[in-house]
Amino acid sequence: MQPYKGLFVLDASQGIAGPYCATLLAACGAEVLKVEPPAGDWSRGLSTREGTQSVMHVSFNRGKRSAVLDLQEERGRAAFKALAARADVMLEAFRPGVARRIGVVPEAGKPDVVFLSISGFGQEGPNSERPCTDSVAQAYSGMVALNQGMDGVPHRTGNLMTIDMVTGISAFAAVQAALAEQARDRVAGAPPRPRVLDVSLMQAAAALMGFNIAEQGLLGRVPPLANVPAGTYQGSDGRWVMVALLRDPEFVTMCEILELPELARDPRFTTFAARAEHREALLPVLREAFTRRTAADWATRFKAARMLCDLVNTPLDWLADPHVQAVGAAVPLDQPGLGTLPFPKLPGLGPWSVAAPALGEHTEAVLAELGL
């Protein structure tokens, strides 16, 4: 699908959230120009890399062109101003206030430009100028508190870039909504007007936990743990298996599979609420039971009983899985400077494999197009 073919997107963002939004627009057919400072997007220096290219940068900047413009200098600002005058969509992720000082503003775009600002805490409010990362957003929003492990310690979700990614997806949705509204106005003959969007990591993190925030706000307290004893358990071979429970009767089935039928009859464990209250007595018994067979054996037994269960895979396990290979869930991308990288298909958009640009790869061409 190429619904945004002919759309010009000027991407002045760095890192993950803004660039990922722009890459999704590129996947939908938009022409995306990434404007980078002389040192390049900082993501070029992180993860496995070769020269100016890195796996992180490729992941969030596929399908774009790259032009290096120094917005601290007059020539760079003049070039950016000329590009902005052509932009249907503009993205920036500077600290609030910085973009305006260097001319990255809605007024620089077309009369009906969709202008997106991405920041840690939003463009207004007492925290607006605070720096923010995925881990800070997780801690601030309550996600870390909710992600308590079986060790009783609250954890960040790991190296998943959860909040950065969901912020990028949220920004993509917001831009699409603005473009749809813009199209409706054109049909109605309404005068053009800009759409200015404010998307923050803080708000995206909170939106991801909408149910949890709503429930705690309603109760005024932390509710009991849900779904106990759903979680991960280690088999005799050291591998882990994940078991999920949605209904109380599934605990009875779990006990039958583990050959612990007496647990299901124990009044301390008959309901989710009771199991949450007595989890310290229940979990050690279950953990010991799982050590009697391999994780794969347990996964087979739980699946045979139509229970929600699977092995805890690594990304390499996922790539090698027969189902993943059968449905073509990963698409190879030949990236100059790095080699072939397997990327998951974009959900609903299908296979899309376009390389990311080298730093400043298109600067001369872009400046020539502008007559500079």
Question: What strand line-up does the widest sheet have?
Answer: 5-2-1-6-7-8
CATH homologous superfamily of the largest domain - what is it?
A: Crotonobetainyl-coa:carnitine coa-transferase, domain 1
Rg from C-alpha positions? 25 Å
Number of domains: 2
Helix content: 40-55%
Report the uncertain regions.
Answer: none
* Termini Cα gap: 34 Å
What is the tally of helical segments? 17
The fraction of residues in strands falls at 15-25%
Protein name: CoA transferase
Pfam families: CoA_transf_3
Keywords: Transferase
GO molecular function: transferase activity
Protein model, in words:
This protein is elongated. It has two domains: 8-211 and 330-369, 3-Layer(aba) Sandwich (Rossmann fold), CATH 3.40.50.10540; 231-320, 2-Layer Sandwich (formyl-coa transferase, domain 3). β12 and β13 form a beta hairpin. The strands form four sheets. A six-stranded parallel sheet has the order 5-2-1-6-7-8, with helices on both faces. Strands 9-10-11 form a three-stranded antiparallel sheet, covered by helices on one side. The model has no long low-confidence stretch (mean pLDDT 94). The chain is built from 17 helices and 13 strands. The protein has helices at residues 17-27, 55-61, 74-84, 98-101, 134-141, 143-146, 162-188, 201-208, 210-219, 249-257, 261-265, 272-277, 279-290, 295-304, 315-320, 322-326, 363-369, and strands at residues 8-12, 31-36, 49-50, 53-54, 64-68, 89-92, 114-119, 195-200, 231-234, 240-244, 308-311, 330-335, 339-344. The protein is of the alpha/beta class and 372 residues long.
